[in-house]
Amino acid sequence: MKLQLFALLALYVLVFFDTSTSYGQTIMPGTSVDEVVLVGYSRSLEQEGWSCVSSKFKGKEGEWINRTLEYRFKWINETVRFDQDESSKISIRVSSDVLEVGKETWFRRYTGGNTMYQIRYYDNVSLILSNCIDGVNVLQPCSFWVKKQYLNNITQLAKANFTELCNETQFVGYEPEACKP
Length: 181
Fold this sequence. Notes:
It is a single chain. The protein has a single domain, classed as Calycin beta-barrel core domain (Lipocalin, Beta Barrel), CATH 2.40.128. It has an 8-stranded antiparallel barrel. By secondary structure, the chain is α+β, with helices and mostly antiparallel strands. It is globular and about 50 Å long. It starts with a helix and ends in a 10-residue tail after the last strand. A hairpin with a 2-residue loop joins strand 2 and strand 3. The protein is built from 3 helices and 9 strands. Keywords: Signal. InterPro entries: Calycin. This is Putative group viii salivary lipocalin.
Protein backbone atom coordinates (compact mmCIF):
# COMPACT_ATOMS: atom_id res chain seq x y z
CA MET A 1 0.00 0.00 0.00
CA LYS A 2 2.81 2.41 0.90
CA LEU A 3 4.54 1.65 -2.40
CA GLN A 4 1.36 2.43 -4.37
CA LEU A 5 0.84 5.66 -2.43
CA PHE A 6 4.45 6.68 -3.07
CA ALA A 7 4.11 5.86 -6.79
CA LEU A 8 0.91 7.93 -7.00
CA LEU A 9 2.59 10.84 -5.21
CA ALA A 10 5.61 10.61 -7.54
CA LEU A 11 3.31 10.62 -10.58
CA TYR A 12 1.46 13.67 -9.23
CA VAL A 13 4.74 15.56 -8.67
CA LEU A 14 5.96 14.63 -12.16
CA VAL A 15 2.72 15.75 -13.82
CA PHE A 16 2.57 18.94 -11.75
CA PHE A 17 6.19 19.81 -12.51
CA ASP A 18 5.77 19.06 -16.20
CA THR A 19 2.61 21.13 -16.62
CA SER A 20 3.76 24.01 -14.46
CA THR A 21 6.92 24.49 -16.53
CA SER A 22 5.36 23.78 -19.91
CA TYR A 23 2.99 26.70 -20.07
CA GLY A 24 3.85 30.36 -20.01
CA GLN A 25 7.28 31.84 -19.85
CA THR A 26 9.93 30.96 -17.34
CA ILE A 27 10.58 33.99 -15.15
CA MET A 28 14.26 34.52 -14.51
CA PRO A 29 16.76 37.33 -14.77
CA GLY A 30 16.97 38.06 -18.48
CA THR A 31 13.32 37.34 -19.21
CA SER A 32 12.02 39.74 -16.56
CA VAL A 33 11.76 43.52 -16.93
CA ASP A 34 14.66 44.01 -14.52
CA GLU A 35 18.06 45.30 -15.58
CA VAL A 36 20.70 42.57 -15.30
CA VAL A 37 24.45 43.07 -15.01
CA LEU A 38 27.42 40.83 -15.73
CA VAL A 39 29.27 40.01 -12.49
CA GLY A 40 31.41 37.07 -13.60
CA TYR A 41 32.58 35.01 -16.54
CA SER A 42 35.07 32.38 -17.61
CA ARG A 43 38.52 33.72 -18.48
CA SER A 44 38.16 32.58 -22.10
CA LEU A 45 35.24 35.00 -22.53
CA GLU A 46 37.18 38.04 -21.38
CA GLN A 47 37.16 40.95 -23.82
CA GLU A 48 39.97 43.40 -23.17
CA GLY A 49 38.78 46.93 -22.48
CA TRP A 50 35.15 46.00 -21.78
CA SER A 51 33.42 46.84 -18.52
CA CYS A 52 30.04 47.81 -17.08
CA VAL A 53 28.16 45.16 -19.10
CA SER A 54 24.40 45.24 -18.52
CA SER A 55 21.15 44.39 -20.25
CA LYS A 56 17.85 46.29 -20.07
CA PHE A 57 14.36 45.11 -20.99
CA LYS A 58 12.81 46.92 -23.98
CA GLY A 59 9.64 44.92 -24.71
CA LYS A 60 8.22 41.70 -26.15
CA GLU A 61 7.26 40.52 -29.62
CA GLY A 62 5.47 37.19 -29.35
CA GLU A 63 7.83 34.77 -27.64
CA TRP A 64 10.87 37.01 -28.23
CA ILE A 65 12.10 39.40 -25.54
CA ASN A 66 13.84 42.54 -26.75
CA ARG A 67 16.68 43.86 -24.62
CA THR A 68 19.68 46.11 -25.00
CA LEU A 69 23.19 44.96 -24.23
CA GLU A 70 25.13 47.93 -22.90
CA TYR A 71 28.82 48.15 -22.11
CA ARG A 72 31.72 50.53 -21.75
CA PHE A 73 34.67 50.08 -24.06
CA LYS A 74 37.99 51.59 -23.11
CA TRP A 75 41.09 51.37 -25.25
CA ILE A 76 44.31 53.18 -24.53
CA ASN A 77 47.66 52.95 -26.27
CA GLU A 78 50.57 55.32 -26.82
CA THR A 79 48.73 57.55 -29.29
CA VAL A 80 45.01 56.91 -28.91
CA ARG A 81 42.62 57.04 -25.96
CA PHE A 82 39.13 55.68 -26.58
CA ASP A 83 36.51 55.58 -23.82
CA GLN A 84 32.92 55.18 -24.93
CA ASP A 85 29.60 53.72 -23.78
CA GLU A 86 27.97 51.46 -26.38
CA SER A 87 24.61 49.73 -26.75
CA SER A 88 23.39 46.93 -28.99
CA LYS A 89 19.86 45.54 -29.46
CA ILE A 90 19.33 41.82 -28.89
CA SER A 91 16.32 39.51 -28.92
CA ILE A 92 16.17 36.39 -26.77
CA ARG A 93 13.75 33.58 -26.11
CA VAL A 94 13.86 30.81 -23.56
CA SER A 95 12.70 27.27 -24.16
CA SER A 96 13.33 24.52 -21.65
CA ASP A 97 16.94 25.00 -20.51
CA VAL A 98 18.17 26.92 -23.56
CA LEU A 99 18.38 30.65 -24.16
CA GLU A 100 18.37 31.52 -27.85
CA VAL A 101 19.71 34.80 -29.20
CA GLY A 102 17.88 35.89 -32.33
CA LYS A 103 18.98 37.79 -35.40
CA GLU A 104 22.56 37.97 -36.55
CA THR A 105 24.07 41.29 -35.50
CA TRP A 106 27.45 42.92 -35.98
CA PHE A 107 27.88 42.71 -32.21
CA ARG A 108 27.53 38.93 -32.13
CA ARG A 109 29.92 38.55 -35.08
CA TYR A 110 32.44 40.88 -33.43
CA THR A 111 32.38 39.12 -30.07
CA GLY A 112 32.07 35.59 -31.44
CA GLY A 113 28.85 35.08 -29.49
CA ASN A 114 26.69 32.00 -29.95
CA THR A 115 23.07 31.73 -31.01
CA MET A 116 22.24 29.23 -28.23
CA TYR A 117 23.27 29.15 -24.59
CA GLN A 118 22.61 26.51 -21.95
CA ILE A 119 20.88 27.78 -18.82
CA ARG A 120 23.01 26.19 -16.11
CA TYR A 121 21.38 27.79 -13.08
CA TYR A 122 18.87 30.48 -12.22
CA ASP A 123 16.94 31.80 -9.28
CA ASN A 124 14.99 35.03 -8.72
CA VAL A 125 18.22 37.03 -8.58
CA SER A 126 20.86 35.38 -10.76
CA LEU A 127 21.37 33.55 -14.04
CA ILE A 128 24.30 31.43 -15.25
CA LEU A 129 24.62 30.79 -18.98
CA SER A 130 27.17 28.58 -20.72
CA ASN A 131 28.01 27.32 -24.15
CA CYS A 132 25.92 24.23 -24.94
CA ILE A 133 27.13 21.23 -22.97
CA ASP A 134 29.33 18.73 -24.84
CA GLY A 135 29.48 16.17 -22.07
CA VAL A 136 28.75 15.75 -18.39
CA ASN A 137 32.38 16.13 -17.33
CA VAL A 138 33.26 18.94 -19.75
CA LEU A 139 33.19 22.37 -18.12
CA GLN A 140 32.06 25.10 -20.49
CA PRO A 141 32.77 28.84 -20.48
CA CYS A 142 30.01 30.69 -18.62
CA SER A 143 28.66 34.13 -17.86
CA PHE A 144 27.11 35.06 -14.51
CA TRP A 145 24.32 37.67 -14.56
CA VAL A 146 22.52 39.27 -11.60
CA LYS A 147 19.56 41.64 -11.30
CA LYS A 148 21.11 45.05 -10.67
CA GLN A 149 19.05 45.78 -7.56
CA TYR A 150 20.38 42.57 -5.92
CA LEU A 151 24.11 43.08 -6.45
CA ASN A 152 24.73 42.84 -2.70
CA ASN A 153 22.44 39.82 -2.21
CA ILE A 154 23.85 37.12 -4.49
CA THR A 155 23.24 33.75 -2.86
CA GLN A 156 26.07 31.43 -1.89
CA LEU A 157 24.32 28.71 -3.93
CA ALA A 158 24.51 30.83 -7.09
CA LYS A 159 28.19 31.60 -6.47
CA ALA A 160 28.94 27.93 -5.80
CA ASN A 161 27.15 26.85 -8.99
CA PHE A 162 29.14 29.38 -11.00
CA THR A 163 32.48 28.08 -9.73
CA GLU A 164 31.48 24.39 -9.92
CA LEU A 165 29.69 24.29 -13.31
CA CYS A 166 31.97 26.58 -15.29
CA ASN A 167 35.62 26.61 -16.26
CA GLU A 168 38.18 29.19 -15.13
CA THR A 169 35.67 31.48 -13.44
CA GLN A 170 36.37 34.98 -12.29
CA PHE A 171 34.12 37.39 -10.44
CA VAL A 172 34.43 40.87 -11.92
CA GLY A 173 31.71 42.61 -9.96
CA TYR A 174 29.76 45.64 -11.10
CA GLU A 175 30.16 49.10 -9.61
CA PRO A 176 27.01 51.17 -10.31
CA GLU A 177 28.76 54.46 -9.50
CA ALA A 178 31.72 53.72 -11.77
CA CYS A 179 29.37 52.67 -14.57
CA LYS A 180 27.26 55.83 -14.72
CA PRO A 181 27.46 57.49 -18.15
